[in-house]
Amino acid sequence: MIVFKHISRFVFLLAGIWTLNFCLVRLSPGDATNVYWGPHSDRTSLETLRAQRGLQLPFWQQFKLWTVRFLQGDWGYSWTRHRPVTAILKEAMPSTLQLTSLALAFSFIIGSAWGVLAGRYAEHASGHVLNFSGLLIYALPSFWLASLAIMFFSVKLQWLPSSGMSSLFIDEPGFGPKLWDRVRHLILPVTILGLAGAAAVSRFVRAQMRNVLRQDFIRLAQAKGLSQRDVLLRHALKNALLPVITLLGLYFPFLLGGALVIEVIFAWPGMGRIAYEALFSKDYPVLFAVNLITATMTIAGNAAADLLYHFIDPRVRRA
Amino acid sequence: MTPLLKVEDLQVSFFKNKEEACAVDKISFEIYPGETLALVGESGCGKTTTAHALFRLVPSPGRIVAGTIALHEKNLLALNEKQLNAVRGKEMGLILQDALSALNPVMRVGEQIAEALRRHLALDKKSAKQQALAWMEKVRLPRAEKLYDCYPHQLSGGQRQRVLIAIALACRPALVVADEPTTALDVSLQSQILALLKELKAELSLAMLWITHDLAVVAQIADRVAVMHAGKIVETAATETLFTQPRHPYTQNLLAAIPRIEFSLPSSNADPASNANPASGTSQKLL
Amino acid sequence: MIRPFRNMRLQNRQLRAGALLLVIILLLSCAAPLLTPYSPDSQDAPALTRHLPPSLQHPFGTDQFGRDVFTRVLFGGRISLLIGMLVVILSVSLGALYGAVSGYMGGAWDTALMRLVDVLLAFPLIFFAVTVIALFGSNLPALILILALTGWMDVARLVRAEVLSLKERAFILKARAVGLNKRRVILRHLIPNTFAIVAAASALRVADVILLESTLSFLGVGVQPPAASWGAILNDGRPVLATVWWLTLFPGLAIALTTVSFHLIGEALPTPGKNS
To answer: 3.30.70, 1.10.3720, 1.10.3470, 2.102.10: which CATH number matches C3-31+67-267?
Structure first.
């Protein structure tokens, strides 16, 4: 039953995004040929296109046509790259997913550990340091951190590459060196992208942890004679970390948005960079498609996180 | 006979913004093996803080400032963490007031009993579970096998309270500290739990420190009573003596504050004068 | 209503630190023209003054046009802060109104309005802003409008929650026939409560907007040259990242300090339901 509720919500939101996107297309200067060709196309093609795509039809019919065409896989044609948008996205999406999924894992694992420690030692000096550093990193602009990281690790120390997904020339052949090369390219962008998220997660977890540690059941566990470690690991941890899953869903828009900037800085060939280039070349078809994809990923992530929480929390599960 | 628990000049204070607020002000009391001492007082007088202090679980910004707590003549305040954890749960058990918040919401109730057993009795998982089930039956939890795997929110209030009792008694401590264990229960449940505890107390020769503000409960379960007010113990006496001959004015006020249902039998020697003094001799009054 | 604010503010160290930092930043940006002899956007300096490292004459160095970076940072602060505050005023007003109306109307209207909010929240802000700017251009008023339109949703939700809880209370009051004017009760409780929540949310929003604006400027689609905005200066620093470090360090530091101060304030403000 719960699953049905979430799926219907997902579909509803998807429809909403869809409509909004279409309205955006229609609102843009020029007419909706924008979606299919760039503004630099020649006049005759545009006329043919108008006739072909039925752009003289009223709003609802256009919407229907648009929807049908999209579902059939016709997502427009990128003027600047001379390729269908679907092809471009097919290449860019895995790159972005690599980056964002690793950054997500980083954020949640590091962030949870950070928050647990900050909460556990909240009254001590070390706890204050952890807390304040979390606040600081949360407030810092990630593109600045990225630039500083490049300056330091790539330029000064020459430890890590500053851009791209892989090096042009790798000395040794085989899968291993290629993998290591990819890892080297991933370290900086994933860390910077994940760090901001980790700070956010840590602050949430810290608050949860402090809350949990004040509860009666912690006191009873201590009165049972359990060691500090047992109390923390067996009783406090699960209670403090369970709500973090709700953060997961809320986190997606920031993750994808942050990825845009990080991809631009590190010249990472993902959707963010594609969108950036499309922005300057006024490549509308690409822009709209990217918008749609990222919005869909967000609500899908949200729905998945909600469902996950439902199945994990024993209090909610049986309700 | 040497007392099981001897508290001397215990002082607990809370610190905020460099100010010290004294919650427990140099109290002393003793509990002998097998006896039940009730610690009575109104809310805020420091009784719960005393209970926490016995386990050295006073929450910050509070601290035990002075005094000694001797269990089996060992000063608990001088023990290190490891030694203290060997005492907690094994020689002293704790029962809390609100069973829903005293149990870990994401851990099954049977497991919460078993973990105490595993910790102190070095049992393996299987025997711990068996003993936990035995305890669940002992505290009169029906269908123990099924309830073992349940989460706290799936149990009723009375069932949860019984689980708390099982947890406290699992390792057979000599002393049980019960912090208002029946306050949150309705009257019928209250009497059930009281009866259960009286039975277990006799069976296991438990000494109990029973903390409450309810004098009715005190009358039923305590051997001796200590009255606490504003952090100090103002009077200690055997239960009957306290009710019939309260010495301290605070105790007298406390007893006077008990609502009474008065009725006079039509034909008996109803003496209005004797009705005036509440704690004197016999009278046709229902407490 | 203000008094409890005053008391708590004085006691709270975090709030004091944040407020102090903010005041310093505000003073610096207001006094910008007095603090520096240079002009922030002249582009006619001789070639020798380009990309000079920090020195006594140019504490933050110079950029590719020979402009003094310290000056640009100061003036950039004016623009960023101005945009931040304007946008937040707009979006908070819009959000509060939307949330209040939605909460007050309740029922199907409420559901519909909130669903719209859900849909809007599903778009990652930056992609959305980038798309809209690509479509409509990026002059200053448009920028402010776009930024405002991407941030009102949170405030709407918060205000709606307050309104709903108060409606419930008023309904109970009515049920008990206390005889109080329902509207007056709502107003007397609604305004102070939501004021506290909105104030805290606003402080955090300003930080977010400054961040978003500097990100957009960094990408080249925010504040346009020759105007100085912290993000734009960072953008100038990007192609020469390896050598001209002062173009990256100082404006970034300015952004960091500003957002940190707003965060300190926003987090430390007491709101109903938070134990400070």
So the answer is: 1.10.3720
